[in-house]
């Protein structure tokens, strides 16, 4: 019998998942389209590899096992799986068509809605993925400033201009790699020391999990203005979650350009580039950024329905409240069990992360142990709480109850030095983000 969300006696049967994985391994390299969804981030031999369906904050794998999901499609599911109002909007539009030979009226309706919400949205472009709009923002920044170099802080997709600074840089010309440099979050000197007369733009995630300190974001904006450099907020994770108008509304900072995807269409593939009209007007004649599916109507219908629901239901406040219950609850349990010295939950409440300190052992092994036991008990867990509107009070209460049991087991395994021996499958792999030596400075920097 398939596992339910309960304190199950057995680990889930994942035989069909394993069969699909074996088939995929013969012809797909790698088998996953997104690293965060792939087998490297879930215990091989124990965790499910393929999901079948979802409803609200629950998912079912191909073997029929049910889980509370805190990954939420790696971010896009902001309201919940199969959310009625969004699905109805998609179905209604499907009756009229998906993609057309001329522009569609939803392009205008969505742009007007975004213009009314996003502080810097004097002008708007619609595309399909986060990497698309990040690269478009870089290109137009170079065109507007007449400069070439980029400074970045965070993760910005798979395109050459960014991925050349990471450890997976094969296939990218050296000349391209040398145009992108990095700086450290919450270290304004690392940015100022890297700005030079050829820096076209600075792109950063306003926050990942760490909060900005000592007016860091304001100082970034000031440094960019002083240097004649455009500021780009990558709001893939912060947009529509931390506030309806994203991090720029939350922190009161209006960047020159901003990019969005993930949360605002509840799972449908769509992205946005917003920004100053004088910059964005270069797309009219001078800068090329077009895609056949930018005006695809199902995603736009979903986006309008999702944003409308977020506005009417004050979803960002709900995510904050529900996320706080999990974050504070986890930390309280860790404190009561005496293990807060090596595990904690941190971040803004809408999206938090559970971390483990090396003082108690290999953090990946500790995380693998917790994931193993959470999955057994019906929680699809990868160390994050990506909150959605339909995570229920019951879901949260059950998850905290599960944390108490699992963290008790972890404490005993750490004391006995049996964490590795307790694993039923292969441990998790390190998450790919960027190079270890992250602050890469230009060869020459000209002080402004």
Lateral arrangement of strands in the main beta sheet: 4-10-9-8-7-5-6
Main beta-sheet strand count, sense and barrel state: 7 strands, mixed
Q: If you average the pLDDT, what whole number results?
A: 94
Q: Output the number of helix runs.
A: 14
Report the sheet-strand fraction: 5-15%
Global geometry: globular
The value of Rg in angstroms is: 22 Å
The poorly predicted ranges are 435-439, 444-448
Structural class call reads alpha/beta
Task: Give helix and strand order, one letter per element, not per position.
Answer: HEEEHHEHEHHEHEHEHEEHHHEEHEEH
Descriptive overview:
This protein is of the alpha/beta class and 448 residues long. The protein contains 14 helices and 14 strands. The strands form three sheets. Strands 4-10-9-8-7-5-6 form a seven-stranded mixed sheet, sandwiched between helices. Helix 2 (84-94) runs antiparallel to helix 11, helix 12 packs parallel to helix 14 (393-416) and helix 13 crosses helix 14. The model is unreliable at 435-439 and 444-448 (pLDDT under 50).
């Amino acid at each position: 019998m398939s596992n339910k969300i309960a304190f199950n006696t057995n680990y889930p049967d994942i035989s069909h998942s394993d069969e699909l994985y074996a088939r995929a391994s013969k012809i797909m390299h790698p088998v996953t389209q997104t690293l965060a969804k792939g087998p490297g981030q879930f215990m091989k031999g124990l965790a499910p590899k393929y999901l079948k369906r979802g409803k609200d904050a629950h998912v079912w794998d191909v073997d029929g096992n049910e889980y509370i999901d805190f990954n939420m499609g790696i971010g896009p599911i902001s309201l919940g799986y199969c959310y009625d109002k969004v699905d109805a909007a998609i179905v209604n539009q499907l009756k009229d068509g998906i993609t057309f030979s001329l522009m569609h009226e939803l392009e205008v309706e969505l742009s007007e809605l975004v213009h009314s919400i996003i502080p810097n949205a004097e002008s708007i472009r619609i595309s399909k993925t986060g990497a698309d709009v990040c690269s478009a923002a870089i290109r137009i920044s170079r065109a507007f400033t007449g400069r070439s170099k980029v400074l970045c802080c965070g993760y910005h997709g798979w395109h050459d201009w960014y991925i050349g600074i990471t450890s997976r840089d094969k296939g990218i010309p050296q000349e391209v790699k040398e145009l992108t440099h990095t700086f450290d979050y919450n270290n304004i000197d690392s940015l100022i020391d890297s700005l030079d007369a050829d820096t076209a733009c600075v792109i950063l995630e306003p926050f990942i999990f760490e909060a900005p300190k000592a007016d860091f974001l304001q100082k970034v904006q000031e440094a960019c203005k002083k240097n004649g450099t455009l500021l780009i907020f990558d709001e893939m994770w912060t947009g529509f979650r931390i506030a309806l108008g994203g991090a720029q509304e939350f922190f009161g900072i209006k960047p020159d350009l901003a990019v969005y995807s993930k949360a605002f269409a509840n799972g449908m593939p769509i992205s946005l580039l917003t920004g100053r009209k004088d910059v964005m007007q270069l797309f009219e004649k001078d800068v090329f950024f077009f895609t056949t599916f930018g005006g695809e109507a199902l995603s736009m219908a979903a986006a309008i329905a999702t944003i409308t629901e977020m506005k009417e239901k004050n979803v960002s406040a709900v995510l904050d409240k529900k996320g706080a219950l999990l974050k504070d609850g986890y930390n309280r349990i860790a404190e009561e069990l005496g293990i807060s010295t090596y595990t904690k939950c941190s971040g803004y409440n809408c999206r938090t992360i559970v971390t483990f300190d090396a003082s108690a052992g290999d953090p990946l092994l500790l995380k693998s142990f917790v994931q193993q036991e959470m999955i057994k008990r019906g929680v699809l867990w990868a160390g994050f709480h990506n909150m959605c509107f339909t995570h229920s009070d019951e879901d949260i209460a059950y998850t905290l109850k599960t944390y108490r049991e699992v963290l008790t087991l972890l404490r005993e395994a750490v004391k006995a030095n049996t964490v590795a021996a307790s694993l039923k499958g292969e441990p998790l792999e390190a998450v790919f983000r960027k190079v270890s030596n992250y602050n890469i400075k230009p060869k020459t920097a000209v002080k402004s």
